[in-house]
Amino acid sequence: MCGIAGFDGKGNYGIGELMIQSIRYRGPDFQAVYFQENICLAHARLSIIDLDKRSNQPFFNARKNLAIVFNGEIYNYIEVKKELSKTKRFNFSTTSDTEVLLYAYEEYGVECLQKIYGMFSFAIYNFDSKELFIVKDRMGKKPLYYSECTDNTFVFASELKAILKHPSVKKELNIEAINQYLTFDYVPTPNSINSNIFKLEPAHYLIVRNGKIIKKKNYWKHNFSSDKCITFNQALEKFDHLLNNATNIRLMGDVPLGVFLSGGLDSSTVAYYAQKNSLLQIKTFSIGFEDKSYDEQEYALQVAKHLGTDHHLEILTASKTIDLIEEIFPLMDEPFADASIIPTYYLSQFTKQYVTVALGGDGSDELLGGYPTFLSDKFKFLFQYLPERYINFFLLLATILPGSDKNISFDFKLKQFLRGFKSSKNHIHQLWLGSFLPHEKEVLFNKKIYSGLIDKAGLNLIDRHFANEIESDFKKITNYYYLTYLLDDILVKVDRASMYNSLEVRSPFLDVHLVDFLNTLPMNFKMKGFEAKYILKKLMEGKLPHNVIYRQKKGFGIPLSNWIRKDLKSIIHQTLITKDDLFNPIYIEKILNEHYSKKHNHRKLIWNLYVLKKYMHNNKY
Protein backbone atom coordinates (compact mmCIF):
# COMPACT_ATOMS: atom_id res chain seq x y z
CA MET A 1 0.00 0.00 0.00
CA CYS A 2 1.41 3.32 -1.00
CA GLY A 3 0.79 6.86 -2.14
CA ILE A 4 1.23 8.09 -5.69
CA ALA A 5 1.33 11.51 -7.34
CA GLY A 6 2.50 13.17 -10.53
CA PHE A 7 1.73 15.44 -13.44
CA ASP A 8 1.97 15.81 -17.20
CA GLY A 9 2.60 19.43 -18.13
CA LYS A 10 4.06 22.44 -16.37
CA GLY A 11 6.07 21.94 -13.21
CA ASN A 12 9.41 20.80 -11.82
CA TYR A 13 11.05 18.27 -9.53
CA GLY A 14 10.42 20.38 -6.45
CA ILE A 15 6.65 20.36 -7.04
CA GLY A 16 6.70 16.56 -7.28
CA GLU A 17 8.62 16.43 -4.02
CA LEU A 18 6.06 18.66 -2.27
CA MET A 19 3.21 16.53 -3.59
CA ILE A 20 4.54 13.18 -2.39
CA GLN A 21 5.81 14.50 0.95
CA SER A 22 2.29 15.73 1.76
CA ILE A 23 1.09 12.09 1.79
CA ARG A 24 4.27 10.35 2.94
CA TYR A 25 2.33 8.61 5.76
CA ARG A 26 0.88 6.40 3.01
CA GLY A 27 4.39 5.11 2.32
CA PRO A 28 6.91 5.90 5.07
CA ASP A 29 9.45 3.28 3.98
CA PHE A 30 10.70 5.10 0.86
CA GLN A 31 9.83 8.18 -1.21
CA ALA A 32 11.12 9.04 -4.67
CA VAL A 33 10.38 11.47 -7.50
CA TYR A 34 11.15 11.11 -11.19
CA PHE A 35 11.01 14.26 -13.32
CA GLN A 36 11.96 14.72 -16.97
CA GLU A 37 10.78 17.50 -19.25
CA ASN A 38 7.00 17.64 -18.67
CA ILE A 39 6.52 14.33 -16.82
CA CYS A 40 6.65 13.76 -13.09
CA LEU A 41 5.99 10.47 -11.28
CA ALA A 42 6.25 10.32 -7.47
CA HIS A 43 5.83 7.46 -5.04
CA ALA A 44 5.72 6.84 -1.28
CA ARG A 45 6.21 3.17 -0.46
CA LEU A 46 4.78 1.02 2.33
CA SER A 47 6.71 -2.22 1.83
CA ILE A 48 4.48 -5.31 1.91
CA ILE A 49 5.73 -7.69 -0.80
CA ASP A 50 9.41 -8.00 -1.77
CA LEU A 51 10.98 -5.69 0.81
CA ASP A 52 14.12 -5.30 -1.33
CA LYS A 53 14.90 -1.78 -2.56
CA ARG A 54 14.87 -3.08 -6.17
CA SER A 55 11.08 -2.85 -5.97
CA ASN A 56 11.11 0.83 -5.09
CA GLN A 57 9.15 3.13 -7.38
CA PRO A 58 8.92 4.82 -9.83
CA PHE A 59 9.73 1.46 -11.44
CA PHE A 60 10.99 1.15 -15.03
CA ASN A 61 10.84 -1.77 -17.43
CA ALA A 62 14.03 -3.24 -18.97
CA ARG A 63 13.79 -1.05 -22.09
CA LYS A 64 13.26 2.07 -19.96
CA ASN A 65 10.35 3.15 -22.18
CA LEU A 66 7.71 2.51 -19.49
CA ALA A 67 7.55 3.71 -15.87
CA ILE A 68 4.94 3.02 -13.18
CA VAL A 69 3.81 4.34 -9.81
CA PHE A 70 1.41 1.93 -8.15
CA ASN A 71 -0.72 1.91 -4.99
CA GLY A 72 -2.29 -1.35 -3.85
CA GLU A 73 -2.01 -5.09 -4.37
CA ILE A 74 -2.44 -7.38 -7.38
CA TYR A 75 -3.69 -10.57 -5.77
CA ASN A 76 -3.19 -12.85 -8.78
CA TYR A 77 0.22 -11.51 -9.76
CA ILE A 78 1.90 -14.92 -9.41
CA GLU A 79 -0.45 -16.44 -12.02
CA VAL A 80 0.02 -13.46 -14.33
CA LYS A 81 3.79 -13.73 -13.89
CA LYS A 82 3.70 -17.40 -14.92
CA GLU A 83 1.73 -16.51 -18.04
CA LEU A 84 4.17 -13.74 -18.94
CA SER A 85 7.14 -16.04 -18.35
CA LYS A 86 5.88 -18.39 -21.05
CA THR A 87 6.49 -15.66 -23.65
CA LYS A 88 10.21 -15.69 -22.70
CA ARG A 89 10.23 -11.91 -23.34
CA PHE A 90 10.69 -10.78 -19.75
CA ASN A 91 13.50 -11.24 -17.25
CA PHE A 92 12.02 -10.51 -13.84
CA SER A 93 14.45 -8.86 -11.45
CA THR A 94 12.14 -8.73 -8.40
CA THR A 95 9.41 -10.79 -6.73
CA SER A 96 7.02 -7.83 -6.58
CA ASP A 97 3.57 -7.40 -8.09
CA THR A 98 4.66 -3.95 -9.35
CA GLU A 99 7.03 -5.47 -11.89
CA VAL A 100 4.40 -8.00 -13.00
CA LEU A 101 1.84 -5.23 -13.47
CA LEU A 102 4.20 -3.13 -15.58
CA TYR A 103 5.17 -6.07 -17.82
CA ALA A 104 1.53 -7.09 -18.14
CA TYR A 105 0.86 -3.63 -19.55
CA GLU A 106 3.87 -3.93 -21.85
CA GLU A 107 2.56 -7.28 -23.16
CA TYR A 108 -1.20 -6.68 -23.28
CA GLY A 109 -1.66 -2.91 -23.26
CA VAL A 110 -5.02 -1.78 -21.88
CA GLU A 111 -6.20 -5.40 -21.98
CA CYS A 112 -3.94 -6.10 -18.99
CA LEU A 113 -6.89 -4.86 -16.90
CA GLN A 114 -8.78 -8.02 -17.89
CA LYS A 115 -5.88 -10.16 -16.62
CA ILE A 116 -5.41 -8.70 -13.15
CA TYR A 117 -7.55 -8.30 -10.06
CA GLY A 118 -6.91 -6.67 -6.72
CA MET A 119 -7.14 -3.26 -5.10
CA PHE A 120 -5.17 -0.60 -6.91
CA SER A 121 -4.70 2.75 -8.48
CA PHE A 122 -1.71 3.29 -10.71
CA ALA A 123 -0.18 5.46 -13.41
CA ILE A 124 2.05 4.22 -16.26
CA TYR A 125 3.88 6.60 -18.55
CA ASN A 126 4.82 5.45 -22.05
CA PHE A 127 7.86 7.41 -23.23
CA ASP A 128 7.33 6.27 -26.84
CA SER A 129 3.69 7.33 -27.26
CA LYS A 130 4.06 10.09 -24.62
CA GLU A 131 0.84 8.93 -22.98
CA LEU A 132 -0.09 8.59 -19.33
CA PHE A 133 -2.31 5.63 -18.41
CA ILE A 134 -4.27 6.17 -15.15
CA VAL A 135 -6.35 3.34 -13.61
CA LYS A 136 -8.59 2.62 -10.61
CA ASP A 137 -9.63 -0.85 -9.42
CA ARG A 138 -13.04 -2.44 -9.98
CA MET A 139 -14.57 -1.78 -6.55
CA GLY A 140 -12.85 1.57 -6.02
CA LYS A 141 -10.78 0.48 -3.04
CA LYS A 142 -7.80 2.72 -3.73
CA PRO A 143 -8.27 6.50 -4.15
CA LEU A 144 -7.27 8.50 -7.23
CA TYR A 145 -7.87 12.24 -7.61
CA TYR A 146 -7.06 14.26 -10.72
CA SER A 147 -7.24 17.77 -12.15
CA GLU A 148 -7.17 18.87 -15.77
CA CYS A 149 -5.82 22.43 -15.61
CA THR A 150 -6.35 25.28 -18.04
CA ASP A 151 -2.61 25.53 -18.84
CA ASN A 152 -2.51 22.02 -20.39
CA THR A 153 -1.31 20.41 -17.17
CA PHE A 154 -2.81 17.18 -15.83
CA VAL A 155 -2.21 16.45 -12.13
CA PHE A 156 -3.04 13.26 -10.19
CA ALA A 157 -2.53 11.87 -6.68
CA SER A 158 -3.84 9.42 -4.09
CA GLU A 159 -5.23 12.31 -2.05
CA LEU A 160 -6.56 15.77 -2.80
CA LYS A 161 -4.05 17.58 -0.59
CA ALA A 162 -1.19 16.42 -2.83
CA ILE A 163 -2.85 17.83 -5.95
CA LEU A 164 -3.24 21.23 -4.29
CA LYS A 165 0.55 21.40 -3.95
CA HIS A 166 0.75 21.95 -7.71
CA PRO A 167 0.50 25.68 -8.57
CA SER A 168 -1.54 25.03 -11.73
CA VAL A 169 -4.46 23.72 -9.62
CA LYS A 170 -6.74 26.45 -8.36
CA LYS A 171 -8.11 26.17 -4.84
CA GLU A 172 -11.85 26.79 -5.20
CA LEU A 173 -14.63 25.64 -2.86
CA ASN A 174 -17.31 23.63 -4.70
CA ILE A 175 -20.67 24.87 -3.37
CA GLU A 176 -22.60 22.15 -5.23
CA ALA A 177 -20.35 19.57 -3.55
CA ILE A 178 -21.12 21.10 -0.14
CA ASN A 179 -24.81 20.72 -0.93
CA GLN A 180 -24.24 17.05 -1.79
CA TYR A 181 -22.15 16.56 1.35
CA LEU A 182 -25.00 17.81 3.54
CA THR A 183 -27.20 15.10 2.01
CA PHE A 184 -24.71 12.22 1.82
CA ASP A 185 -22.26 12.95 4.70
CA TYR A 186 -19.48 12.87 2.11
CA VAL A 187 -18.79 14.35 -1.32
CA PRO A 188 -19.85 11.64 -3.80
CA THR A 189 -17.70 10.55 -6.75
CA PRO A 190 -16.82 12.00 -9.25
CA ASN A 191 -16.96 15.38 -7.49
CA SER A 192 -14.64 16.65 -4.80
CA ILE A 193 -14.86 19.57 -2.40
CA ASN A 194 -12.68 21.49 -4.87
CA SER A 195 -14.37 22.63 -8.09
CA ASN A 196 -11.24 21.84 -10.14
CA ILE A 197 -10.45 18.38 -8.75
CA PHE A 198 -12.29 15.10 -9.43
CA LYS A 199 -12.26 11.50 -8.23
CA LEU A 200 -11.76 8.75 -10.79
CA GLU A 201 -14.68 6.33 -10.76
CA PRO A 202 -14.20 2.60 -9.97
CA ALA A 203 -13.22 0.37 -12.91
CA HIS A 204 -12.27 3.36 -15.06
CA TYR A 205 -9.11 4.40 -16.79
CA LEU A 206 -7.85 7.62 -18.35
CA ILE A 207 -5.38 8.17 -21.15
CA VAL A 208 -3.65 11.55 -20.99
CA ARG A 209 -1.50 13.19 -23.66
CA ASN A 210 0.09 16.65 -23.47
CA GLY A 211 -1.72 17.41 -20.23
CA LYS A 212 -5.19 16.64 -21.63
CA ILE A 213 -7.50 13.64 -21.13
CA ILE A 214 -7.96 12.09 -24.58
CA LYS A 215 -9.89 9.02 -23.41
CA LYS A 216 -11.91 7.92 -20.40
CA LYS A 217 -13.41 4.44 -20.28
CA ASN A 218 -15.22 2.05 -17.96
CA TYR A 219 -13.39 -1.31 -18.31
CA TRP A 220 -15.64 -3.50 -16.09
CA LYS A 221 -19.21 -3.56 -14.78
CA HIS A 222 -21.03 -5.56 -12.13
CA ASN A 223 -22.72 -8.68 -13.43
CA PHE A 224 -26.26 -8.79 -12.05
CA SER A 225 -27.61 -11.51 -14.34
CA SER A 226 -29.48 -14.09 -12.26
CA ASP A 227 -28.37 -17.69 -11.81
CA LYS A 228 -31.85 -19.23 -11.70
CA CYS A 229 -30.63 -22.85 -11.68
CA ILE A 230 -28.41 -22.78 -8.59
CA THR A 231 -29.79 -24.36 -5.42
CA PHE A 232 -29.26 -22.89 -1.97
CA ASN A 233 -26.90 -25.73 -0.96
CA GLN A 234 -24.87 -25.28 -4.14
CA ALA A 235 -24.67 -21.56 -3.44
CA LEU A 236 -23.52 -22.26 0.13
CA GLU A 237 -20.76 -24.55 -1.09
CA LYS A 238 -19.51 -22.08 -3.69
CA PHE A 239 -19.74 -19.18 -1.22
CA ASP A 240 -17.55 -21.12 1.21
CA HIS A 241 -15.00 -21.90 -1.52
CA LEU A 242 -14.78 -18.33 -2.85
CA LEU A 243 -14.65 -16.67 0.56
CA ASN A 244 -11.99 -19.12 1.73
CA ASN A 245 -9.87 -18.37 -1.36
CA ALA A 246 -10.45 -14.62 -1.08
CA THR A 247 -9.23 -14.63 2.52
CA ASN A 248 -6.31 -16.97 1.89
CA ILE A 249 -4.91 -14.90 -0.98
CA ARG A 250 -5.09 -11.77 1.18
CA LEU A 251 -2.78 -13.39 3.73
CA MET A 252 0.14 -13.00 1.32
CA GLY A 253 2.98 -10.67 2.23
CA ASP A 254 6.40 -10.42 3.83
CA VAL A 255 5.23 -8.47 6.90
CA PRO A 256 3.17 -9.24 10.07
CA LEU A 257 -0.60 -9.52 9.51
CA GLY A 258 -3.75 -9.39 11.67
CA VAL A 259 -7.55 -9.05 11.55
CA PHE A 260 -9.93 -6.31 12.71
CA LEU A 261 -12.43 -8.10 14.98
CA SER A 262 -15.45 -6.08 16.13
CA GLY A 263 -17.44 -9.09 17.32
CA GLY A 264 -19.97 -8.69 14.51
CA LEU A 265 -20.71 -11.40 11.98
CA ASP A 266 -18.63 -9.95 9.11
CA SER A 267 -15.32 -9.43 10.91
CA SER A 268 -15.77 -12.69 12.83
CA THR A 269 -16.24 -14.51 9.51
CA VAL A 270 -13.01 -13.04 8.14
CA ALA A 271 -11.19 -13.96 11.37
CA TYR A 272 -12.48 -17.54 11.04
CA TYR A 273 -11.20 -17.99 7.47
CA ALA A 274 -7.93 -16.19 8.25
CA GLN A 275 -7.20 -18.50 11.19
CA LYS A 276 -8.26 -21.53 9.13
CA ASN A 277 -5.70 -20.66 6.44
CA SER A 278 -2.85 -19.67 8.75
CA LEU A 279 -0.27 -21.98 10.27
CA LEU A 280 0.37 -19.36 12.94
CA GLN A 281 -1.94 -17.90 15.58
CA ILE A 282 -3.69 -14.90 14.01
CA LYS A 283 -3.60 -11.58 15.86
CA THR A 284 -7.00 -9.89 16.20
CA PHE A 285 -7.78 -6.32 17.25
CA SER A 286 -10.89 -4.56 18.55
CA ILE A 287 -12.16 -1.33 20.12
CA GLY A 288 -14.47 -1.13 23.13
CA PHE A 289 -16.62 1.65 24.64
CA GLU A 290 -17.75 2.50 28.16
CA ASP A 291 -21.35 2.91 26.89
CA LYS A 292 -22.66 -0.67 26.77
CA SER A 293 -25.16 0.02 23.98
CA TYR A 294 -22.18 0.72 21.68
CA ASP A 295 -19.74 -1.77 23.16
CA GLU A 296 -19.15 -5.13 21.47
CA GLN A 297 -16.00 -6.25 23.22
CA GLU A 298 -17.63 -9.25 24.94
CA TYR A 299 -18.53 -10.68 21.51
CA ALA A 300 -15.08 -9.95 20.10
CA LEU A 301 -13.49 -11.71 23.09
CA GLN A 302 -15.88 -14.65 22.68
CA VAL A 303 -14.98 -15.05 18.99
CA ALA A 304 -11.24 -14.67 19.70
CA LYS A 305 -11.43 -17.39 22.35
CA HIS A 306 -13.54 -19.61 20.08
CA LEU A 307 -11.04 -19.30 17.21
CA GLY A 308 -7.92 -19.28 19.37
CA THR A 309 -6.57 -15.93 18.15
CA ASP A 310 -4.09 -13.64 19.89
CA HIS A 311 -6.52 -10.86 20.77
CA HIS A 312 -5.80 -7.20 21.56
CA LEU A 313 -8.32 -4.68 22.90
CA GLU A 314 -8.38 -0.92 23.51
CA ILE A 315 -11.14 1.26 25.03
CA LEU A 316 -12.09 4.52 23.32
CA THR A 317 -13.22 7.23 25.77
CA ALA A 318 -14.72 10.65 25.15
CA SER A 319 -11.55 12.41 26.31
CA LYS A 320 -9.45 10.29 23.94
CA THR A 321 -11.88 11.14 21.12
CA ILE A 322 -11.20 14.86 21.63
CA ASP A 323 -7.48 14.18 21.21
CA LEU A 324 -8.12 12.07 18.11
CA ILE A 325 -10.23 14.80 16.49
CA GLU A 326 -7.22 17.11 16.71
CA GLU A 327 -5.06 14.37 15.12
CA ILE A 328 -7.43 13.28 12.35
CA PHE A 329 -9.17 16.44 11.16
CA PRO A 330 -6.05 18.31 9.95
CA LEU A 331 -5.25 15.27 7.75
CA MET A 332 -8.70 15.09 6.13
CA ASP A 333 -8.69 16.86 2.78
CA GLU A 334 -12.45 16.53 2.26
CA PRO A 335 -15.27 16.84 4.82
CA PHE A 336 -16.36 13.36 5.94
CA ALA A 337 -19.16 13.03 8.48
CA ASP A 338 -19.09 9.31 9.27
CA ALA A 339 -18.02 9.56 12.92
CA SER A 340 -16.89 5.94 12.90
CA ILE A 341 -13.68 7.15 11.24
CA ILE A 342 -12.57 8.02 14.79
CA PRO A 343 -12.71 4.48 16.25
CA THR A 344 -11.41 3.12 12.92
CA TYR A 345 -8.43 5.48 13.16
CA TYR A 346 -7.82 4.49 16.80
CA LEU A 347 -8.13 0.81 15.88
CA SER A 348 -5.64 1.28 13.04
CA GLN A 349 -3.28 3.22 15.27
CA PHE A 350 -2.93 0.53 17.88
CA THR A 351 -3.08 -2.32 15.34
CA LYS A 352 -0.05 -0.79 13.59
CA GLN A 353 1.95 -1.35 16.77
CA TYR A 354 1.79 -5.10 16.04
CA VAL A 355 1.26 -5.63 12.28
CA THR A 356 1.56 -3.86 8.91
CA VAL A 357 -1.46 -5.49 7.22
CA ALA A 358 -4.96 -6.09 8.61
CA LEU A 359 -7.99 -7.85 7.13
CA GLY A 360 -11.50 -6.41 7.63
CA GLY A 361 -15.12 -7.36 6.99
CA ASP A 362 -16.09 -4.41 4.77
CA GLY A 363 -18.42 -5.07 1.85
CA SER A 364 -20.57 -7.81 3.32
CA ASP A 365 -23.51 -5.53 4.14
CA GLU A 366 -23.64 -4.12 0.61
CA LEU A 367 -23.27 -7.55 -1.01
CA LEU A 368 -25.86 -9.27 1.16
CA GLY A 369 -28.41 -6.58 2.01
CA GLY A 370 -27.20 -6.38 5.59
CA TYR A 371 -28.06 -2.80 6.49
CA PRO A 372 -31.30 -2.02 8.37
CA THR A 373 -32.28 0.11 5.35
CA PHE A 374 -32.75 -3.06 3.29
CA LEU A 375 -35.26 -4.32 5.87
CA SER A 376 -36.83 -0.86 5.99
CA ASP A 377 -37.44 -1.17 2.27
CA LYS A 378 -39.72 -4.13 2.98
CA PHE A 379 -41.53 -2.27 5.77
CA LYS A 380 -41.94 0.73 3.46
CA PHE A 381 -43.79 -1.46 0.97
CA LEU A 382 -46.24 -2.54 3.70
CA PHE A 383 -46.42 0.89 5.30
CA GLN A 384 -47.65 2.63 2.17
CA TYR A 385 -50.92 0.64 2.29
CA LEU A 386 -51.82 1.86 5.78
CA PRO A 387 -54.76 4.28 6.07
CA GLU A 388 -53.75 7.94 6.17
CA ARG A 389 -54.72 8.32 9.86
CA TYR A 390 -52.19 5.65 10.91
CA ILE A 391 -49.42 7.24 8.89
CA ASN A 392 -50.21 10.60 10.48
CA PHE A 393 -50.06 8.96 13.92
CA PHE A 394 -46.55 7.64 13.29
CA LEU A 395 -45.46 11.01 11.94
CA LEU A 396 -46.78 12.69 15.09
CA LEU A 397 -45.12 10.06 17.29
CA ALA A 398 -41.78 10.72 15.61
CA THR A 399 -42.00 14.42 16.51
CA ILE A 400 -42.89 13.93 20.19
CA LEU A 401 -40.62 11.03 21.14
CA PRO A 402 -37.66 12.36 23.16
CA GLY A 403 -34.20 11.68 21.74
CA SER A 404 -32.43 8.65 23.18
CA ASP A 405 -28.65 8.36 23.39
CA LYS A 406 -28.61 4.58 22.96
CA ASN A 407 -27.16 3.01 19.83
CA ILE A 408 -29.85 2.54 17.13
CA SER A 409 -32.63 3.31 19.63
CA PHE A 410 -36.33 2.96 18.76
CA ASP A 411 -36.88 6.72 18.41
CA PHE A 412 -33.86 7.02 16.12
CA LYS A 413 -34.98 4.11 13.93
CA LEU A 414 -38.54 5.42 13.69
CA LYS A 415 -37.47 8.96 12.84
CA GLN A 416 -34.96 7.77 10.26
CA PHE A 417 -37.57 5.46 8.70
CA LEU A 418 -40.09 8.29 8.35
CA ARG A 419 -37.52 10.69 6.84
CA GLY A 420 -38.52 11.51 3.31
CA PHE A 421 -41.22 8.82 3.42
CA LYS A 422 -43.16 10.51 0.64
CA SER A 423 -40.11 10.89 -1.60
CA SER A 424 -39.46 8.79 -4.72
CA LYS A 425 -38.33 5.19 -4.23
CA ASN A 426 -34.96 6.05 -5.79
CA HIS A 427 -34.22 8.66 -3.13
CA ILE A 428 -35.49 7.06 0.05
CA HIS A 429 -32.43 4.89 0.83
CA GLN A 430 -30.17 7.92 0.77
CA LEU A 431 -32.60 9.92 2.89
CA TRP A 432 -32.53 7.08 5.43
CA LEU A 433 -28.73 7.02 5.42
CA GLY A 434 -27.91 10.70 5.15
CA SER A 435 -28.20 13.86 7.21
CA PHE A 436 -30.06 16.91 5.90
CA LEU A 437 -33.33 16.56 4.03
CA PRO A 438 -34.07 18.95 1.11
CA HIS A 439 -36.47 21.12 3.13
CA GLU A 440 -33.95 21.34 6.00
CA LYS A 441 -31.23 22.57 3.66
CA GLU A 442 -33.57 25.29 2.40
CA VAL A 443 -33.58 26.86 5.86
CA LEU A 444 -29.98 25.92 6.69
CA PHE A 445 -28.37 27.70 3.74
CA ASN A 446 -28.00 31.43 3.44
CA LYS A 447 -30.82 32.48 1.07
CA LYS A 448 -28.44 33.86 -1.55
CA ILE A 449 -26.35 30.66 -1.57
CA TYR A 450 -29.44 28.44 -1.72
CA SER A 451 -30.97 30.36 -4.63
CA GLY A 452 -27.78 29.86 -6.66
CA LEU A 453 -27.66 26.06 -6.26
CA ILE A 454 -28.24 24.07 -9.46
CA ASP A 455 -29.39 20.86 -7.73
CA LYS A 456 -31.11 22.25 -4.65
CA ALA A 457 -32.18 18.85 -3.29
CA GLY A 458 -28.72 17.41 -3.96
CA LEU A 459 -30.30 14.20 -5.28
CA ASN A 460 -29.75 14.29 -9.07
CA LEU A 461 -26.76 11.96 -8.75
CA ILE A 462 -29.04 9.28 -7.30
CA ASP A 463 -31.33 9.28 -10.32
CA ARG A 464 -28.33 8.79 -12.61
CA HIS A 465 -27.21 5.75 -10.61
CA PHE A 466 -30.68 4.19 -10.84
CA ALA A 467 -30.94 4.78 -14.60
CA ASN A 468 -29.79 1.30 -15.64
CA GLU A 469 -31.20 -1.97 -16.96
CA ILE A 470 -30.69 -4.06 -13.83
CA GLU A 471 -33.63 -6.42 -13.58
CA SER A 472 -34.82 -6.13 -9.96
CA ASP A 473 -35.28 -3.30 -7.45
CA PHE A 474 -33.17 -5.17 -4.87
CA LYS A 475 -30.24 -5.39 -7.28
CA LYS A 476 -30.67 -1.75 -8.34
CA ILE A 477 -30.42 -0.76 -4.68
CA THR A 478 -27.38 -3.03 -4.19
CA ASN A 479 -25.69 -1.40 -7.17
CA TYR A 480 -26.52 2.03 -5.75
CA TYR A 481 -24.80 1.14 -2.46
CA TYR A 482 -21.71 -0.03 -4.36
CA LEU A 483 -21.46 3.30 -6.19
CA THR A 484 -22.17 5.56 -3.23
CA TYR A 485 -22.11 4.44 0.41
CA LEU A 486 -19.53 1.66 -0.03
CA LEU A 487 -17.35 3.67 -2.40
CA ASP A 488 -17.34 7.10 -0.78
CA ASP A 489 -18.04 6.29 2.86
CA ILE A 490 -16.89 2.82 3.93
CA LEU A 491 -13.85 2.51 1.66
CA VAL A 492 -12.75 6.12 2.17
CA LYS A 493 -13.08 5.76 5.95
CA VAL A 494 -10.96 2.60 6.04
CA ASP A 495 -8.38 3.88 3.55
CA ARG A 496 -7.81 7.18 5.32
CA ALA A 497 -7.96 5.86 8.89
CA SER A 498 -5.51 3.06 8.09
CA MET A 499 -3.15 4.95 5.78
CA TYR A 500 -2.84 7.89 8.16
CA ASN A 501 -1.23 5.22 10.37
CA SER A 502 0.74 3.49 7.56
CA LEU A 503 -1.39 0.36 7.83
CA GLU A 504 -2.73 -1.63 4.89
CA VAL A 505 -6.28 -3.03 5.14
CA ARG A 506 -7.59 -5.79 2.87
CA SER A 507 -11.24 -6.80 2.39
CA PRO A 508 -11.94 -10.45 1.42
CA PHE A 509 -15.66 -9.75 0.84
CA LEU A 510 -14.71 -7.36 -1.96
CA ASP A 511 -12.87 -10.00 -3.96
CA VAL A 512 -14.10 -9.56 -7.54
CA HIS A 513 -14.89 -13.27 -8.01
CA LEU A 514 -16.95 -13.32 -4.80
CA VAL A 515 -18.73 -10.07 -5.74
CA ASP A 516 -19.62 -11.40 -9.19
CA PHE A 517 -20.98 -14.61 -7.69
CA LEU A 518 -23.08 -12.99 -4.95
CA ASN A 519 -24.54 -10.49 -7.42
CA THR A 520 -26.12 -13.34 -9.38
CA LEU A 521 -27.87 -14.99 -6.42
CA PRO A 522 -31.64 -14.70 -5.88
CA MET A 523 -32.69 -12.09 -3.33
CA ASN A 524 -34.23 -14.70 -1.00
CA PHE A 525 -30.80 -16.33 -0.58
CA LYS A 526 -29.59 -13.05 0.91
CA MET A 527 -32.75 -11.91 2.69
CA LYS A 528 -35.11 -14.65 3.87
CA GLY A 529 -38.27 -12.89 5.02
CA PHE A 530 -36.86 -10.34 7.46
CA GLU A 531 -33.62 -12.28 8.09
CA ALA A 532 -30.79 -10.26 6.53
CA LYS A 533 -27.57 -11.89 5.26
CA TYR A 534 -29.31 -15.24 5.42
CA ILE A 535 -26.78 -17.18 3.33
CA LEU A 536 -23.83 -15.85 5.34
CA LYS A 537 -25.50 -16.81 8.61
CA LYS A 538 -26.16 -20.31 7.31
CA LEU A 539 -22.58 -20.56 6.06
CA MET A 540 -21.17 -19.71 9.48
CA GLU A 541 -23.39 -22.04 11.51
CA GLY A 542 -21.08 -24.47 13.31
CA LYS A 543 -18.08 -22.23 12.58
CA LEU A 544 -18.89 -19.33 14.94
CA PRO A 545 -20.91 -19.14 18.18
CA HIS A 546 -24.66 -19.07 17.46
CA ASN A 547 -25.27 -15.89 19.46
CA VAL A 548 -22.63 -14.05 17.42
CA ILE A 549 -24.21 -15.12 14.13
CA TYR A 550 -27.78 -14.17 15.02
CA ARG A 551 -27.41 -11.16 17.29
CA GLN A 552 -28.76 -7.75 16.24
CA LYS A 553 -26.46 -5.64 14.06
CA LYS A 554 -24.95 -2.67 15.90
CA GLY A 555 -22.61 -1.02 13.44
CA PHE A 556 -19.25 0.52 14.31
CA GLY A 557 -20.19 3.85 15.85
CA ILE A 558 -19.41 6.04 18.85
CA PRO A 559 -21.78 7.39 21.56
CA LEU A 560 -21.95 10.68 19.69
CA SER A 561 -25.37 11.83 20.87
CA ASN A 562 -24.43 11.84 24.55
CA TRP A 563 -20.92 13.17 23.93
CA ILE A 564 -22.33 16.18 22.01
CA ARG A 565 -24.31 17.13 25.13
CA LYS A 566 -21.37 16.59 27.48
CA ASP A 567 -17.72 15.89 26.65
CA LEU A 568 -17.70 17.27 23.08
CA LYS A 569 -20.18 20.09 23.72
CA SER A 570 -17.62 22.85 24.11
CA ILE A 571 -15.55 22.18 20.98
CA ILE A 572 -18.61 21.53 18.79
CA HIS A 573 -20.70 24.45 20.06
CA GLN A 574 -17.83 26.90 19.67
CA THR A 575 -17.30 25.81 16.06
CA LEU A 576 -20.98 25.84 15.05
CA ILE A 577 -21.93 29.23 16.49
CA THR A 578 -19.14 30.90 14.50
CA LYS A 579 -20.87 32.89 11.75
CA ASP A 580 -20.02 32.35 8.09
CA ASP A 581 -21.38 33.29 4.64
CA LEU A 582 -22.96 29.88 3.96
CA PHE A 583 -25.43 29.10 6.71
CA ASN A 584 -28.31 30.50 8.75
CA PRO A 585 -27.07 30.80 12.37
CA ILE A 586 -30.63 30.85 13.77
CA TYR A 587 -31.38 27.39 12.37
CA ILE A 588 -28.07 26.01 13.65
CA GLU A 589 -28.78 27.36 17.12
CA LYS A 590 -32.25 25.78 16.97
CA ILE A 591 -31.00 22.24 16.28
CA LEU A 592 -28.30 22.60 18.94
CA ASN A 593 -30.82 23.62 21.60
CA GLU A 594 -33.24 20.86 20.62
CA HIS A 595 -30.45 18.33 20.97
CA TYR A 596 -29.18 19.69 24.28
CA SER A 597 -32.73 19.55 25.73
CA LYS A 598 -33.28 16.01 24.34
CA LYS A 599 -36.30 17.23 22.42
CA HIS A 600 -34.76 15.69 19.31
CA ASN A 601 -31.67 13.62 18.61
CA HIS A 602 -29.89 15.77 16.01
CA ARG A 603 -26.52 14.05 16.32
CA LYS A 604 -26.22 13.40 12.58
CA LEU A 605 -27.06 16.98 11.60
CA ILE A 606 -24.81 18.52 14.25
CA TRP A 607 -21.86 16.26 13.49
CA ASN A 608 -22.25 16.81 9.73
CA LEU A 609 -22.12 20.59 10.19
CA TYR A 610 -19.31 20.43 12.74
CA VAL A 611 -17.11 18.38 10.41
CA LEU A 612 -17.77 20.75 7.51
CA LYS A 613 -17.10 23.94 9.44
CA LYS A 614 -14.02 22.42 11.08
CA TYR A 615 -12.77 21.39 7.64
CA MET A 616 -13.33 24.87 6.18
CA HIS A 617 -11.50 26.45 9.11
CA ASN A 618 -8.52 24.03 8.89
CA ASN A 619 -8.22 24.56 5.13
CA LYS A 620 -8.76 28.34 5.23
CA TYR A 621 -11.90 28.49 3.08
Task: Kindly describe this structure.
This protein is of the alpha+beta class and about 625 residues long. Among the domains are: about 1-220, 4-Layer Sandwich (Glutamine Phosphoribosylpyrophosphate, subunit 1, domain 1); about 230-370 and about 475-550, 3-Layer(aba) Sandwich (Rossmann fold). The protein has 27 helices and 17 strands. The strands form 3 sheets. It has a 6-stranded antiparallel beta sheet. Helix 9 crosses helix 10. The longest helix has 27 residues, at about 475-500. The protein is globular and about 75 Å long. The two termini are about 30 Å apart.
Describe the structure using short key phrases.
17 strands, Glutamine Phosphoribosylpyrophosphate, subunit 1, domain 1, 621 residues, six-stranded antiparallel β-sheet, alpha+beta, Rossmann fold
The CATH topology label of the domain at 2-218 is: Glutamine Phosphoribosylpyrophosphate, subunit 1, domain 1
* Class from secondary-structure proportions: alpha+beta
* Share of helix, binned: 40-55%
Q: Numbering strands along the chain, what is their spatial order in the largest sheet?
A: 2-3-1-9-8-10
| Strand count | 17
* CATH evolutionary superfamily of the domain at 2-218: Aminohydrolase, N-terminal nucleophile (Ntn) domain
CATH top level of the domain at 2-218 is Alpha Beta
Q: Quote the average pLDDT.
A: 91
Low-confidence runs of at least 5 consecutive residues: none
Largest sheet: 6 strands, antiparallel
Shape: globular
Number of helices: 27
CATH architecture of the domain at 2-218: 4-Layer Sandwich
